[in-house]
Amino acid sequence: MDLKQTFVIKSFTDVMRVHGFLGQNHSEAVGDNKPLIVRVDQKEETRTKAQNRLIHMWFGEIAKNMGDTPEHVKFLMKKKFFASIMVRDNEESKEQYDSVIQFKKVIKQLDESEQEHYWVRYNNLVRMFVKDHLKTHTATTKQLSEFCDKIHDFASITLGLHLTCPDDLKWALEK
Fold it and tell me: How far apart are CA 58 and CA 77, in angstroms?
């Protein structure tokens, strides 16, 4: 008997559905001497649509200031700031990141004439890492808020750029 179930509880109706499931399967589980185990957890929200709109608006503003494209600014910001957040919080990303850094260290040990060829490969590897491991839709609201803070600080301090912060999105900058 495989009873693995996940229930998302958003209403009293959902509570009653879980109650019904437990009542329906309790007798059989006890009869098999395999009592049911119930785990309760709260879902950690991934980034919100408001946060997503905010960072994409900022990518556009920074791109305009730098004479670049929003897509390239997004890549640069992910590489510069988002990588450290995701690597810190995700073991698989950390392992991949460490491999990229090790490759960079090896290249620096080569003769200058050999390095050029490997820097092209390294840059391709970095692009692949950013594309495959740095996806904002997998970030929590807390991680994306930290990313927003870093983008905002970079634009303000490094570029001297005041980014637009609509009132309804200011919460995304709060820590």
Answer: 11
Euclidean distance between CA atoms 28 and 168, whole angstroms: 52
Q: 73: exposed, middle or buried (C-beta count within 10 Å: 0-12, 13-18, 19+)? A: buried
Across the range 83-93, mean pLDDT stands at 87
Judge contact between 129 and 153, C-beta under 8 A: no
Secondary structure in 3-state letters for the chain: CCCCCCCCCCCHHHHHHHHHHHHHHHHHHHHCCCCCCCCCCCCCCECCHHHHHHHHHHHHHHHHHHCCCHHHHHHHHHHHHHHHHHHHHCHHHHHHHHHHHHHHHHHHHCCHHHHHHHHHHHHHHHHHHHHHHCCHHHCEHHHHHHHHHHHHHHHHHHCCCCCCCCHHHHHHHCC
What's the whole-model pTM score? 0.63
